[in-house]
Amino acid sequence: MDPGFDPDRPDGDDTADPRERDANDPLSEFRERFDVPGELYLDGNSLGPVSDAAERSLERALEEWRELGIEAWTEAERPWFRYGESLGDELASLVGADSEEVVVANSTTVNIHTLVGTFLDARGDRPPGILVNELDFPTDHYAIRSQLRQRGHDPDDHLHVVESHDGRTIAEDDIVVPLEDHEVGIVFMPSVLYRSGQLLDIERITDAAHERGALAGFDLAHSVGVVPHELSVHGVDFAVWCSYKYLNAGPGAIAGLYVDERHFGETPALAGWWGHEKETQFELRERFTPADSAGAWQIGTVPVLAAAPLDGSLEIVREAGIDRIREKSLALTSFLIRLVDETLAAYGCAVGTPRAPEDRGGHVAIEHPEAARISEALRERGVVVDFRPPNVIRVCPAPLYTRFVDVREFVAQLGEVLETGAYEDVDPDGNVS
Ligand SMILES: Cc1ncc(COP(=O)(O)O)c(C=O)c1O
Predict the structure, then answer these.
(1) CA of 6 to the centre of ligand 1 (A)
(2) Residue 154: which residues within 8 A CB-CB, separation 6 or more?
(3) Position in ligand 1 atom list of the atom nearest CA 109
(4) Is the pLDDT of residue 204 over 90?
């Protein structure tokens, strides 16, 4: 990134003046393209802010609706009939896949339902065990349990949950070893743990699953747009993600999914006409013929207005470049971790995120017994972070619009809240996000 970038220190020189680092940051100009809410917005891994490009592409869709009406399905600048596929093409390089392997469709939870269901069905009579971990975002387990139940399998017998030793992280060996003990057909893991920010090794987990005849699927919600991926190269079987976090496509934006091409032709568990082979979709046949691509896992009509902002927001990510985004993200999180260690440990704050750059995603978990009240006190000052129970202040210096001076300012604000005890006045009830 900056002229002094040292490849041996991918997370940058933390001792440099943050103003200087901002001045040398090749991504600094991207901040102007966003409307960043609040005084300090450090919650982009929950909901990324709106950008000029996302607003434009949404307005374009509205204009096409107004001007073209139903003709827009075929006549829009990016025809809506293939919107899911064409936005998938744009996303493919971000996740390291071929364009036919990626589509945008549904929500993340629905995509977990359909993909896990599909691959449970594909295993036929073999044991349906699925390996997950106890620190997963809960929706993943809810969806998988319900897919097991719908096939008559008791989730308590077939959902194998890797436990954490420290409540923060998952040891990769603990994912690999149970593959021997349980009859696991599918390993389903997050790329980045939503609370601690630990980044798991997708390649290693995929290889271990394949060596034991299992499939490997991933929830990339907390890494897409901030960590580069190589899904095809690593032979990942399937993946899902949302677009409203680091991709900044807006609340409830359409989600994305990847299916490796060797699985094209499998029958989607939740089939619908939008996943039909495109060429014959409008023949409205009685029987479903799945598209010979990831497009088969679409279900109903693409929600154009929930997809349109993604078009513009991807333009920004592409311009910035995922490698530069990752580089700056590591520099920001490294700086934040150092400042917390140096100035806030004395107030009872501890960093719960792995320190090795290769083991962390784009956010940092700051642990404190009063995290709920502290998070709320910060929000009251316009410093937007989120609280994750039981004790995490989750801080996301998203690289497209966060400056090094913002990280320093955040630490100063948190220090003040702790020093003055301002959080003690906050009602502990009703403030948990
Ligand atoms: C890891 C993970 N998976 C899934 C989701 C949510 O999925 P959905 O968009 O279906 O609500 C989240 C939401 O924050 C998440 O963190």
Answers:
(1) 35
(2) 148
(3) 10
(4) yes
pLDDT above 60 (res 1): no
Helix (H) / strand (E) element for 117: namely helix 108-122
pLDDT of residue 7: 44
The whole-number pLDDT of residue 432 equals 36
Q: How far apart are CA 280 and CA 286, in angstroms?
A: 12
Cβ–Cβ under 8 Å, residues 361 and 227: yes
383 close to 42: Cβ distance less than 8 angstroms: yes
Closest by CA position to 138, among listed 388, 399, 405, 424: 388
Q: DSSP for 331-349?
A: HHHHHHHHHIIIIIGGGT-
Residues recognised as catalytic: 137, 219, 244-245, 394
Tokens in use for 407?
Answer: 């990280």
The alpha carbon of 219 and the centre of ligand 1 are apart by a number of angstroms equal to 8
Which one has a higher pLDDT value, 180 or 157?
A: 157
For the chain, the average pLDDT equals 94
DSSP state of 101: G
CB-based contact 421:381 (threshold 8 Å): no
Exposed / middle / buried, residue 154 (Cβ in 10 Å: 0-12, 13-18, 19+): exposed
Residue 182 has pLDDT above 50, yes or no: yes
According to DSSP H, which parts of 178-303 are helical? Answer: 178-181, 202-211, 278-281
Ligand 1 center to 303 CA (angstroms): 18
Q: How many CB atoms lie within 10 A of CB 203?
A: 15
Q: What residue owns the CA closest to ligand 1's atom 7?
A: 108
- Residues, the chain, total? 433
Q: Measured between alpha carbons, how far is 429 from 426 in angstroms, rounded to an integer?
A: 9
* DSSP output for 121-167: HHTTTS--EEEEETTS-HHHHHHHHHHHHHTT--HHHHEEEEPPSSS
Q: Are 132 and 116 a contacting pair, CB within 8 Å?
A: no
pLDDT attached to residue 177: 76
Dihedral sign (CA 400, 405, 411, 417): negative
Please give the Cα distance from 259 to 61 (Å, whole number): 28
Report long-range pairs for 385-391 (Cβ below 8 Å, ≥24 apart).
385/42, 385/43, 385/410, 386/43, 386/46, 386/433, 387/431, 387/432, 387/433, 388/194, 388/195, 389/432, 391/367
Q: Which of 3, 49, 16, 87 is nearest to 396 (CA)?
A: 49
180 band by pLDDT with thresholds 50, 70 and 90: confident
Q: Which domains does the chain have, with CATH numbers?
A: 18-35+321-425 (3.90.1150.10), 55-318 (3.40.640.10)
